[in-house]
Amino acid sequence: MQEFDIELDARGLVCPLPILRTKQALATMTSGQILKIVATDPGAVIDFQVFAEQTGNTLLSMSEDDEEFVFFLKKR
C-alpha cells in the first residue's frame, strides 16, 4: 500500500477541476511529500500524466478501481 501525506477527493469533478484542485493542494505541500488523488473523470488519466510531465512532479502510480481512478503524485 502506497503511503501518502495528503488525500484529495476529486470524485464527481470534471476537467479541469481535478488538476486545479491538485495544483492548490501541491502548493500547500513541501518537496518530497506525496499526494493521493481520487477522481471519477476518465479524462483524468491523461490529464495527470501530462500534468506530471509539464510540472516536474512525479506520478508514482495510477490505478482504476470500480470506476474510480487513484493517482499518487510526489511533489518535486
Helix-strand topology string: EHEHEE
Give the count of structural domains.
1
Instruction: Tell me the CATH superfamily.
Output: TusA-like domain
**At the first level of CATH, what is the class?**
Alpha Beta
Shape: globular
Q: How many DSSP E strands?
A: 4
Major β-sheet strand ordering: 1-2-4-3
Structure write-up:
Strand 3 and strand 4 (68-74) form a beta hairpin. It is built from 2 helices and 4 strands; from the N terminus they run E-H-E-H-E-E. It is α+β, with helices and mostly antiparallel strands. The model has no long low-confidence stretch (mean pLDDT 97). It has a 4-stranded mixed sheet, with helices on one face. It has one domain (6-74): 2-Layer Sandwich (Translation Initiation Factor IF3). Helices cover 30% and strands 34% of the residues. It has helices at residues 17-27, 44-55, and strands at 6-10, 34-39, 58-65, 68-74.
